[in-house]
Structures are given as structure tokens and as C-alpha cells.
């Protein structure tokens, strides 16, 4: 009996619960329908939120796709149209190329899984240079790994290759479609000597920005008959020792070819890490700026719905239901916005990738594969945006649903509350800035600095609202009576609703200014550095077998006023030799030596021992490049060792003292220089790898540029050098500058994009604000203020806010620029740069801000004039 | 007619036929290939693309230029001359050196070994090469090697352009080589020679010798390949080769002895556009004679597609050969029913289904043979998928030999 009752009770409660849940669901749906109706009425509000989210996600995805693709490219890098090499046989120490007989020996021994490659630069018709990759195409296409690497989705199925023409060495090269469209739109590539026919193949074959030729043509173009740049070997990892001993038995000794095991892109990944981190940081900045817009949109729409929400609550809808409806709305907006952003972002990355590919190739010699994308990116983007949006909007929602039910909360109180928040933000920002200021001097590594920079970046916009208040307050005493007073008083009220958009624009402006400062400063520094570094008139890099002949020929040439040489080999630098030998750290370096004059007068020294030049040529001193010194915390006077000096026999006595650290701008590789006498003692290759020469002009004066041009052409002919092997000083300079500008092009583009996003944010904020202010403006009009005066008034108000923001962007931009130059770039790349302030860039940024602001104000004003006065008067007030 | 054949592209054939039945036009060993690519084995064969590439490279060449015309034609009454004709004929489109061997180990295990080096001209040799680089070439070489026992079939291939250092045919001493697969004669003649093939999982070094005169197939080496007589090749054989040597399987070395058979063939066109593939037999009968036999199958008519045992329309040719150099020809032009070939048994392999057992009747020679494979799974899963392996004979004669099945 009781049991039956209980059951009945239970059934009843379940039914009740069910009904309750149904009720809640129905009301949530009702709320959502209401919001939908509201947005249909005011699409701008939903649009602004969507736009913000979409823009944020666009940049995030754009950069993520670009980065992921680059990293995938390193780890999956293959020989062109072929597989990934496991071992490279490269030129023996001190030579540029290896003899092709090594390849023949390999093939005859049955090492058919090998690929001969020859590459190098050839001069184009218009003075530029093209990197040509030549390989044994038949080998490249038919190589198969013995292991089951059957995932050959992207494997070259080269139906369209004119193999007959390629193999017979006709002037035909192959490129990816993307590159072909860019550099050979008419299917031809004009070289100095001849014109090559260009075959474009699908980008999915992964040629990237490479120009591929058959080896028969490449050897001829590069003037490397019988020579190879390297041989790629394909083998399984556990069989490498066997392979090595097989090479030994074939008499392929280090004198014939160097054995280099490939690391599957590890080194490249490490090298480019800072570059990608930079991109990531930029994309996060853009993401934050985008979120500002979205947040602004949500806030504005809530503000406009305040009355509506209060009404809902008054009519008995639970707060939780309203809250749930708002949350669902936000989630929907985030999902739709993210999807939009995802699609546009993929497009963006498609557009960015060639630029990144160019940079990576220039700086690190990495080829990029064609892009891919993954669904997980979308989910990641949605999750990230959702978390950020919820974190940002939750306090707003809570405030709103907790507000008093009494209609029309006091405007004054609201303003006061804003003031209080702004003060709190200001104090918080000050704390953050002090923290950063305290910690920055201690930051040694790039990552830490980047985090600190992030803190500064967050702090700066938080300063803004209160500073705007102060700025307007300062102006107030200067205002004339009447409308001007009204104008300033109202501006103060505008600060709260505008502050978010202004924060975004401040952030973008500061970032833009700082990046421009960085790039401008870098260019200046580089110019100065090149000026010091390059002293000779012509720089010559002949093929190794001809270098001796050319050297003698130049030495006996009466026109030559000075002849300089540079030697180079790869070596291992052994750090901390001094105390504990257990923690030996070795670093792969480029070991250089220059003739005494060049070292003495063209090393752009950052710091040096006071006695450096007195004893440099006798003592075991070495000079290290700045990037190397910074990366491994090397100091003047530290002692290190070089493996190549070990072999000289003086086994205990090969300690070298760091006598100087020299600037090495634009070079990311580790480099050290030893004196010529040390080089000779170590019995390193005597043949220089490059030569430089200065020439007498007319009447023994300095040679003029036109004379030099003529001389360059003449010498190229006399010495039988291609134009890729002889450079004038001016040519090197322009090329270096152009190349390093490109290094930063991707960051500059991202920066401009961020600024555009911020401008869009400002535009939408101004638009919404001006629309919201239609009622007071109509009132003023009804009171007799002319439309012209009104327009000027509104414009001046915006102008004041924007100008104060821009003013603030000046010091903050400088601060960010300072940090970028003196912390981030220095630690990431190891280049000391003198900071130079770029007024032009700053002016540009301000101009963009002003134009956006003008547009954003004028458009709604124009719309307003087309509406009847009454309609405007009836608009809800702010 | 020639023109038509040239323009026949693989693509159009693919549309017309079931993938397996598609026979791909161009060159034999090579191009039995491409259309048939859809069989499971070749789908994961990494270099199937190479086959496509080659065929399209050559077909392209031929379809849009007069180059085709400049490949040398095969004409009746050609006078063979040696050692010249042992070497490569670069002005013909395709050529091969084809050795098959039936071997026995000291333990009495029966084995089959195959080595083939193919040459394909991407362009006719008349079009001169301007680039004087040793790498510049219009000749593509590829080679297949296989070792077959009753329970194992190992096969490999190698590819290369012509290069005097690692892929070439040279006169003095006579040698044919691609990387470390080499045929090396002691002098300028074919024999005595050492054939050496090295792979990871198997190798062989075989001493080859023969005292018998060469056998000229067809009309003094002019071997007709189509019913209308318009397609032909130059074709000579040495069916009587004595072999001794050693093989290595998975690191284990064994001595072997046996008999080998060399085929040399070159032409500028091998199949007509209506021919689907071929079945080729090199048989040594217990009476000391040898029988070369092939049929070139016509395309299956539409209605009988999918029915494997539907009667086949084909062009047959055979030659009964004796070690003194004499022989008798039988072909379907002169004797339409002179040869009857019936597939007895089909076997599913990695490359698809093949008729691995046959009945062959040649009434005029009193031959009625049942041919069965040593190993039914002798499919070659290479960029050119086909079936090739040792066979044994019963019926009117006993004996051993080799069978090649293509275009299935």
C-alpha cells in the first residue's frame, strides 16, 4: 500500500520535474526567440559580435595553418619529386661540390636508392638570380623505400612531365604552378645565357618555390660538369651503420664525400622556432584585438537590450532562464563566427604562405610543402574563442541579470560605476607594468621576454579609459561656454562605451608603431653594418677547382689595388672546456678565416678585449658572432675549443680565447673567425672559398660605380665566371637589404591586418555609438543647433578620443618597439639593432585611425538626416 | 594506321574497358602496365606512376609530333649481324634482353630465375641531343629480376636513364648492365658470360654457356605480331644455354645447375590497338627440342567480359627448335587452327587473376601438352604487373620451361 503510494509519489515528482524542465526549456526558447526578433530589428549588434569573432578566428587560423604547414614541411621534407633522404653525401671539407664518380660507384655497387643532386644559382636576364635544383629525375621518380612507405597520396605521378625533353638536357625546367604563375607567366624563364621553357605542374607535388631541372641541364647551367652538390641516400634507420661500412668498402672516404645523417627536420625546427613563435605572438595579438570587437558587440547589444531584459525579469522569467538564453546566444554566435573565421582564415593562410615560404627559404633554406588543413583547427578555434568569450561576457551577464528590477537604474550611478571600474583597471595596469619592468632586466631567454611583452601588451590598453578621462578633464577649462562645454561633458560620457574599441585601436596602433620601428631600425642597422663589412669593390666566388687560378690572375692584374680572401669549413665548437669536462657542449659552427687586413678592418665588433689587435695574430684568439655569443652566453675571455684544431696534434693546447664578439646581422647560423696563422697551423684547407678585390679607378682614385659595372662585366668574361659568381659591393647591399626586408614582411603584413581589424572595431563602435546617440542629437537639433554644428560636434568628440589614444600610442609604441628590439629580436636572432624612431609609420597609423573614425561618424550622421526628427527623438537613450 | 595507334591513349581505353582487361598500348614489358594499374597490387606499388609517366611521356611525344615516323620500322629481309645486333638499337622504340632459367639445387629443389633488361626510347635517336652532358639521354632502361621456388617468388626492379657508367649495353667485352645487375661476357660474343643479380633478399651468379647456333624466330628473325602482318619485331633466341652457378636466398648460398633461354627482341611497335595482352611460353621438351609459343589476345568482346572462359580470339605463333639451329614455324596466319591453347586453371594473385595452367595442342608437331606452374603465385608486383614463372610439362612430352602472362 505504502509502496504504491511511494511509487505514485515518485511518478508524480518525475512528472512534475519533467514538466518543470519542459517549462524551463520552453521559456529559454521563448527568450531566444525574443533575442532573435531583437537582432532582426538591429542586425548591426549581432553583426558586430560575429565580425569580431570571425576576424579573431581568421587571423588565428591563418597563422596556425601557416605555422603548422611549415613545421610539417620540415619533418616531411623530401627530395624534390621523391622521398625523404636519410643520409646526404655532401662535398668533402673545403670544397663546394663532390665528384659524380662517387654516385657512379654507389650505383654500380647496387645502392640504387640514391639520388644525385646538383644545385646552385644562375643569373637571370634582369640581374636577379634563380636557384636551380637539378637531380637525376629518373632516380628521383623511381626511388622507393624498401620499407612500406605506401602513403603516396602526394607522390609524384608525373603524367605531364615531358621526360624525353628533360632527360635529353633540353632547356626545360619544372616548377609548381604557383611559382610558375609568379615568375614565368608566359612559360619561359629568361636567363642571361638562354631562355628556359617552363613546365608547370600541380602544387601538390611539393616543388614549393624550387626550380627543378634534370641533372643533364643543371650541370650545364651551373657550370658544374661532372660535379654534384650532394647525393641523397635512402635507407632504413637501423641499417645506417651497415650503409656507412659499405661506403667505406667502396672507398668513399671523407676526402671524397662527407657523410651527413639527416635529422628529419629537427635542426630546422629548432632554428625556426623563434620565427614561428613570433608569428604566433602576432596572431594572438590579432585574436585579442578581434575579441575586443566581439566583446564590444556583446556589451553594446546587452546595453540596448537592458530594458528588454528588465521587462523579462519583471514578467517573472527566472534569472537562470534569461542567463541560459544569453549563454546559448553567445555560443551560437561563437560557433557561427568561428566557422566564418575558419573559412576566411584558410584563405588568408593560402595567401600568406608564399610569403612565409620565401622568408623561410631565404633565412633557413627550408622548402615548404603545399598547404593542408585540419578540422581540429576549427574545433580548437571554437573552444578557444568560446572560453575567451565566456570569460569576458560572464561578468556582464551576471551584472545584467542581477540588476534591480526597478525600472531605469540611475544614469549617474552607472557612470560612477564605470569610473570606478576604469580606476581599478588603471591600477591593475600599473601593477602589471611595474611587474614587467621589474622582471625584464632578469629575462635572459626569448620565451620569458615574450611572456613579459605579453603582460605589457595587456597592461597598455587597460591604462586607456582613465587616461582618456584625464585628457578630457585637462581640456575642459579651455572650452568656451555653451556647446563646447556640452561637447566635452558628453565626451566624458562617451568614454565608457567607446573605451573598448579604443583599447583595441591603441593595442593595434602600438603594435604597428613598434613593428615599424623594429623594421626601420633593422634596415638602418643593416645598412651601417654592410658599410663596415663590405670594403672591397667586387666579391668573387668561383668554383673550387678554379679558385687558385683566378687568385693568381687577380694578384697579377695591374688594375687590382687589393685582394682579399675568405676561408670556410664546418666545425664543432666545444664550449666550457675550462672547468668540468663532463658537461661538454658542442655546437656546429661555420669556421671562417679572413686575411689579416679584412679581419682587422671589416669585423663590425660589438665588444672586444682591449688587447685584441695587438695579440690577435699571435695568440689563440677567436672572434664569435653575436648570435652565437647570445645563444650560448659566451663572454669575452671565455675559453672554447674547436674540433678541427684537435687534429693538429697539440691535443691539450687547443684552447681558444674569445677575443671579440662581432655583429652578424641577418645571419642565423653560428659563426666563428680564427686568424689566418691559426688556420694554417691547423692544416685546414688552404684554398679560399671566396675572393674579394678592390680596384684602382682613373688616376689611382677610388673607382666609380659606372667604371665598376663595366669592370665587373669585363672580369666576368676574362675569368669565365657566371654573373652569379661575381658581385659588386652595391649589388650585395641591395640584395641583402631586399632579402631582410622580406624576412619581416610576414610580420608587417600580420601587423597591418591587426590594425585593419582594430579599425573595423573602431568603425563598428563609432557606428553603434552614433546610432545610440540619435536621440540627444535630435534634441539638440530641435533646440536650434544647426546640422553642420552638430556634425562638427560629433566629429570633434570622436577626434578628441582618437587623438588622445594616438598620443598614448606614441610612448607605448616606443616602449613595445624598445622591448622588441632590445629583448625579443636580440634574444631570438642575436642581432643588436639601434633603435630609430619612424615618424612616417607613426603618421600612417594615426591617419588610418582618423580616416576610420571619420567614416564611422559620418555614415550614421548621414543616415540620421534622412530619418524624420520624431523617429530620432524617440530612440532610446544611451 | 600508324597514326591511329599512336593517338590511342590509355585514358580512352580505360573508359571503354574494365580496368583489368585494359591493355595498354605502348611497349611490351613496360607497358603491359599502365591501364592495368588498377589491380590491387599496383595500387600500392609506389612507382606505378612511373609506368604511367613513361607511357604518357612517349605517347605524348608520338601523338603530337612526327617523331613516331622517325623510329626505325621493322622490315622483312633484315640481315642480322653480330656483335652489332647484340647491342642496343636506339633508333627503335623498345628492346629487351630476356633470360629465363630452370635451375636445380644440389638438394634437388627446382627453381626458376628470370632477368630482363628493357630499353625504351623516349624519342627517336634521329632527333639529335644538343646537350653533350653524359647524363643527357633519350634512352630509358629498366630491369626486372626474379627467383621462384615452389613456395616463394621474389621479384625486384631497377630503373635508370642510359648512362655509360651504370645503365648501358657495351660491346667489348659484351655487357649489359643496370647498377649491379650485369651480364658480362668474356669477349664480344654472347657466351660464355656471367649473369650477376644482387638484391637484398636474393642474388644469383650464373655461368652461362651455349654451343648451339642462334634461333631466328618467324621469318629469319622477322616475327609477325598481328593477323594483318602489319606489326612485327626482330626476334632471335638462344634456347639452349647451359647454366651453373650459385644463388643466395635470404643469406643462404646454394649451388645450382640448369638450362637457360635468352630472347632478344626489338621493334618500334609491339601490339595493335585491338590486342589486349599475350601469353608466351619458352618450353624445353624431353626430346631435346625447344618450343617457343605465344598468343597475342584480341580485346574481349563486350558481351563476354567477366566470363574468363569465353573463347579467346588471338594471333598465334610458334617455333619448334632444334639444337642444330634448325626449326619449324607454325602460325595462325598460315594455319588458322594449327595451334590450340586453352586455359585450364585460374589463380588469384596479388596482381589479379591469371590462367596459370594451360593445354596446348599443335597437331602438326604431334604436340599435346598440359602446362602447369611450379608456383601459381609467380605474379610480378612491379610497376609493370604481370605473371612470369617456371612451368612443367606433361602429356605428349615432358619437360620444363617458362611462361609469361600479360594484359590480364
Would you write up a description of this structure?
The complex is a heterodimer of chains A (878) and B (408). Chain A has 878 residues and is α+β, with helices and mostly antiparallel strands. Chain A folds into four domains: 210 residues, no CATH class; 168 residues, no CATH class; 266 residues, no CATH class; 198 residues, no CATH class. Chain A contains 27 helices and 21 strands. Chain A has a six-stranded mixed sheet. Chain A has a six-stranded mixed β-barrel with strand order 13-14-19-16-18-17. Chain B is built from six helices and 23 strands. In chain B, a hairpin with a 5-residue loop joins strand 16 and strand 17. Chain B is 10% helix and 47% strand. The N terminus of chain B is likely disordered. At the A-B interface, helix 3, helix 4, helix 5 and helix 7 of A face helix 5 and strand 4 of B.
The CATH topology annotation of chain B reads as AttH-like fold
Q: Count up the domains of chain A.
A: 4
The strand count of chain B comes to 23
Compute the CA-based radius of gyration of chain A.
34 Å
Number of helices of chain B: 6
User: Helix/strand/pairing class of chain A, anyone?
Assistant: alpha+beta
Main beta-sheet strand count, sense and barrel state of chain A: 6 strands, mixed
Helix content of chain B: 10-25%
| CATH class division of chain B | Mainly Beta
Beta-strand content of chain A: 5-15%
What separation lies between the terminal Cα atoms of chain A?
65 Å
Just name the CATH architecture of chain B: Beta Barrel
Distance between the termini of chain B: 25 Å
If strands are numbered along the chain, what order do they take across the biggest sheet of chain A?
Answer: 8-4-3-10-1-11
Structural class of chain B: mainly beta
How many runs of DSSP E, i.e. beta strands of chain A?
21
The quaternary organization reads as heterodimer
The domain count of chain B comes to 1
Amino acid at each position: 500500500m505504502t509502496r504504491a503510494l511511494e511509487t505514485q509519489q515518485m511518478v508524480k515528482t518525475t512528472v512534475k520535474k519533467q514538466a518543470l524542465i519542459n517549462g524551463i526549456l520552453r521559456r529559454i526558447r521563448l527568450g531566444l526567440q525574443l533575442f532573435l526578433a531583437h537582432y532582426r530589428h538591429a542586425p548591426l549588434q549581432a553583426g558586430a559580435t560575429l565580425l569580431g569573432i570571425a576576424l579573431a578566428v581568421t587571423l588565428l587560423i591563418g597563422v596556425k595553418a601557416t605555422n603548422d604547414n611549415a613545421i610539417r614541411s620540415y619533418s616531411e621534407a623530401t627530395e624534390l619529386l621523391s622521398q625523404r633522404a636519410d643520409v646526404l653525401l655532401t662535398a668533402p671539407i673545403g670544397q663546394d661540390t663532390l665528384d659524380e664518380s662517387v654516385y657512379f660507384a654507389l650505383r654500380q655497387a647496387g645502392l640504387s636508392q640514391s639520388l644525385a643532386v646538383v644545385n646552385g644559382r644562375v643569373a637571370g636576364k634582369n640581374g636577379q638570380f634563380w636557384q636551380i635544383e637539378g637531380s637525376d629525375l629518373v632516380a628521383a621518380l623511381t626511388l622507393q623505400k624498401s620499407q612500406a612507405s605506401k602513403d603516396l597520396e602526394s607522390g609524384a605521378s608525373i603524367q605531364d612531365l615531358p621526360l624525353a625533353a628533360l632527360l635529353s638536357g633540353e632547356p626545360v625546367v619544372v616548377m609548381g604552378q604557383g611559382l610558375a604563375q609568379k615568375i614565368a607567366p608566359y612559360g619561359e624563364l629568361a636567363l642571361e645565357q638562354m631562355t628556359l621553357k617552363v613546365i608547370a605542374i600541380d602544387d601538390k607535388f611539393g616543388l614549393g618555390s624550387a626550380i627543378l631541372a634534370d641533372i643533364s641541364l643543371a650541370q650545364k647551367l651551373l657550370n658544374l660538369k661532372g660535379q654534384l652538390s650532394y647525393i641523397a641516400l635512402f635507407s632504413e634507420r637501423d641499417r645506417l651503420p651497415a650503409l656507412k661500412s659499405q661506403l667505406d668498402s667502396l672507398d668513399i672516404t671523407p676526402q671524397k664525400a662527407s657523410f651527413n645523417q639527416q635529422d628529419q627536420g629537427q635542426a630546422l625546427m629548432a632554428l625556426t622556432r623563434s620565427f614561428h613563435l613570433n608569428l604566433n605572438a602576432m596572431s594572438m595579438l590579432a585574436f585579442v584585438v578581434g575579441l575586443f570587437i566581439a566583446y564590444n558587440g556583446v556589451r553594446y547589444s546587452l546595453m540596448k537590450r537592458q530594458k528588454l531584459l528588465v521587462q523579462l525579469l519583471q514578467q517573472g522569467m527566472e534569472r537562470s532562464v534569461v542567463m541560459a538564453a544569453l549563454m546559448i546566444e553567445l555560443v551560437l554566435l561563437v560557433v557561427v563566427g568561428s566557422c566564418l573565421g575558419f573559412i576566411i582564415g584558410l584563405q588568408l593562410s593560402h595567401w600568406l604562405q608564399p610569403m612565409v615560404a620565401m622568408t623561410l627559404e631565404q633565412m633557413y633554406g627550408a622548402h615548404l610543402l603545399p598547404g593542408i588543413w585540419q578540422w581540429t583547427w576549427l574545433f580548437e578555434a571554437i573552444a578557444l574563442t568560446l572560453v575567451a568569450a565566456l570569460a569576458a561576457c560572464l561578468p556582464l551577464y551576471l551584472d545584467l541579470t542581477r540588476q534591480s528590477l526597478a525600472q531605469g537604474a540611475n544614469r549617474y550611478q552607472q557612470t560612477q560605476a564605470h569610473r570606478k571600474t576604469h580606476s581599478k583597471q588603471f591600477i591593475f595596469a600599473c601593477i602589471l607594468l611595474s611587474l614587467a619592468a621589474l622582471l625584464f632586466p632578469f629575462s635572459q631567454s626569448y620565451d620569458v621576454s615574450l611572456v613579459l611583452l605579453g603582460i605589457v601588451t595587456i597592461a597598455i590598453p587597460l591604462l586607456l579609459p582613465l587616461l582618456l578621462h584625464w585628457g578630457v578633464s585637462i581640456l575642459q577649462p579651455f572650452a568656451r561656454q555653451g556647446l563646447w562645454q556640452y561637447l566635452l561633458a558628453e565626451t566624458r560620457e562617451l568614454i565608457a562605451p567607446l573605451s573598448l574599441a579604443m583599447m583595441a585601436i591603441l593595442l593595434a596602433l602600438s603594435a604597428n608603431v613598434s613593428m615599424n620601428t623594429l623594421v626601420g631600425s633593422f634596415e638602418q642597422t643593416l645598412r651601417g653594418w654592410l658599410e663596415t663589412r663590405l670594403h672591397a669593390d667586387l666579391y668573387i666566388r668561383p668554383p673550387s677547382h678554379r679558385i687558385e687560378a683566378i687568385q693568381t690572375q687577380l694578384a697579377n692584374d695591374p688594375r687590382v689595388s687589393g685582394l682579399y680572401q675568405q676561408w670556410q669549413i664546418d666545425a664543432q665548437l666545444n664550449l666550457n672546456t675550462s672547468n668540468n669536462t663532463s658537461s661538454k657542449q658542442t655546437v656546429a659552427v661555420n669556421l671562417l678565416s679572413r686575411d689579416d687586413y679584412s679581419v682587422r678592418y671589416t669585423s663590425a665588433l660589438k665588444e672586444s678585449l682591449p688587447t685584441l689587435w695587438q695579440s690577435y695574430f699571435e695568440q689563440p684568439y677567436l672572434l664569435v658572432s653575436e648570435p652565437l655569443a647570445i645563444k650560448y652566453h659566451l663572454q669575452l675571455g671565455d675559453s672554447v675549443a674547436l674540433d678541427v684544431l684537435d687534429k693538429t696534434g697539440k691535443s691539450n693546447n687547443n684552447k681558444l680565447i674569445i677575443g671579440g664578439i662581432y655583429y652578424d646581422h641577418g645571419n642565423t647560423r653560428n659563426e666563428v673567425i680564427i686568424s689566418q696563422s691559426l688556420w694554417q697551423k691547423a692544416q685546414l684547407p688552404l684554398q679560399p672559398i671566396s675572393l674579394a678585390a678592390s680596384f684602382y679607378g682613373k688616376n689611382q682614385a677610388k673607382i666609380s660605380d659606372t667604371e665598376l659595372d663595366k669592370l665587373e662585366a669585363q672580369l666576368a668574361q676574362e675569368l669565365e665566371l657566371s654573373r652569379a659568381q661575381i658581385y659588386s659591393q652595391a649589388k650585395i647591399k641591395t640584395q641583402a637589404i631586399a632579402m631582410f626586408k622580406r624576412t619581416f614582411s610576414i610580420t608587417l603584413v600580420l601587423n597591418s591586418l591587426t590594425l585593419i581589424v582594430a579599425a573595423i572595431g573602431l568603425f563598428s563602435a563609432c557606428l553603434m555609438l552614433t546610432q545610440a546617440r540619435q536621440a540627444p542629437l535630435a534634441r539638440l537639433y530641435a533646440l536650434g543647433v544647426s546640422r553642420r554644428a552638430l556634425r562638427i560636434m560629433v566629429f570633434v568628440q570622436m577626434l578628441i578620443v582618437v587623438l588622445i589614444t594616438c598620443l598614448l600610442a606614441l610612448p607605448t609604441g616606443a616602449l613595445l618597439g624598445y622591448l622588441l628590439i632590445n629583448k625579443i629580436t636580440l634574444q631570438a636572432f642575436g642581432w643588436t639593432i639601434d633603435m630609430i624612431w619612424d615618424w612616417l609609420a607613426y603618421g600612417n597609423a594615426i591617419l588610418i585611425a582618423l580616416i576610420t573614425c571619420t567614416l564611422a561618424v559620418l555614415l550614421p550622421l548621414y543616415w540620421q538626416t534622412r530619418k524624420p526628427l520624431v523617429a530620432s527623438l524617440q530612440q532610446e537613450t544611451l | 594506321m600508324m597514326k591511329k595507334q599512336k593517338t590511342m591513349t590509355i585514358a580512352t581505353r580505360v573508359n571503354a574497358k574494365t580496368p583489368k582487361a585494359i591493355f595498354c598500348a605502348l611497349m611490351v614489358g613496360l607497358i603491359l602496365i599502365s591501364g592495368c594499374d588498377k589491380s590491387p597490387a599496383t595500387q600500392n606499388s609506389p612507382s606505378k606512376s612511373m609506368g604511367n609517366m613513361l607511357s604518357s611521356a612517349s605517347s605524348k611525344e608520338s601523338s603530337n609530333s612526327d617523331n613516331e615516323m622517325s623510329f626505325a620500322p621493322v622490315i622483312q629481309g633484315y640481315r642480322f649481324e653480330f656483335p652489332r645486333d647484340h647491342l642496343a638499337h636506339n633508333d627503335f622504340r623498345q628492346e629487351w634482353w630476356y633470360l629465363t632459367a630452370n635451375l636445380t639445387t644440389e638438394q634437388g629443389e627446382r627453381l626458376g630465375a628470370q632477368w630482363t633488361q628493357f630499353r625504351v626510347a623516349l624519342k627517336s635517336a634521329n632527333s639529335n641531343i644538343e646537350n653533350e652532358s653524359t647524363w643527357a639521354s633519350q634512352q630509358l632502361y629498366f630491369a626486372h629480376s626474379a627467383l621462384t621456388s615452389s613456395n616463394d617468388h621474389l621479384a625486384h626492379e631497377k630503373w635508370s636513364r642510359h648512362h655509360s657508367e651504370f645503365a648501358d649495353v657495351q660491346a667489348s667485352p659484351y655487357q649489359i648492365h643496370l647498377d649491379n645487375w650485369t651480364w658480362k661476357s668474356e669477349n664480344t660474343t654472347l657466351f660464355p658470360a656471367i649473369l650477376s643479380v644482387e638484391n637484398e633478399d636474393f642474388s644469383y651468379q650464373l655461368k652461362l654457356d651455349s654451343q648451339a647456333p642462334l634461333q631466328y624466330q618467324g621469318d629469319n628473325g622477322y616475327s609477325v605480331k598481328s593477323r594483318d602482318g602489319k606489326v612485327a619485331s626482330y626476334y632471335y633466341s638462344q634456347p639452349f644455354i647451359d647454366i651453373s652457378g650459385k644463388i643466395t636466398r635470404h643469406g643462404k648460398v646454394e649451388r645450382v645447375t640448369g638450362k637457360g633461354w635468352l630472347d632478344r627482341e626489338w621493334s618500334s611497335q609491339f601490339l595493335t590497338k585491338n590486342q589486349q595482352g599475350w601469353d608466351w611460353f619458352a618450353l624445353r621438351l624431353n626430346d631435346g627440342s625447344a618450343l617457343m609459343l605465344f598468343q597475342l589476345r584480341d580485346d574481349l568482346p563486350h558481351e563476354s567480359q567477366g566470363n574468363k572462359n569465353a573463347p579467346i580470339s588471338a594471333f598465334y605463333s610458334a617455333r619448334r627448335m632444334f639444337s642444330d639451329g634448325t626449326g619449324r614455324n607454325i602460325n595462325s596466319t598460315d594455319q588458322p587452327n594449327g595451334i590450340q591453347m586453352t586455359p585450364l586453371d585460374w589463380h588469384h594473385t596479388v596482381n589479379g587473376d591469371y590462367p596459370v595452367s594451360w593445354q596446348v595442342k599443335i597437331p602438326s608437331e604431334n604436340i599435346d601438352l598440359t602446362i602447369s606452374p611450379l608456383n601459381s603465385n609467380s605474379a610480378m608486383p612491379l610497376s609493370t604487373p604481370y605473371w612470369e614463372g617456371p612451368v612443367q610439362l606433361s602429356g605428349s612430352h615432358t619437360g620444363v620451361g617458362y611462361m609469361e602472362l600479360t594484359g590480364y
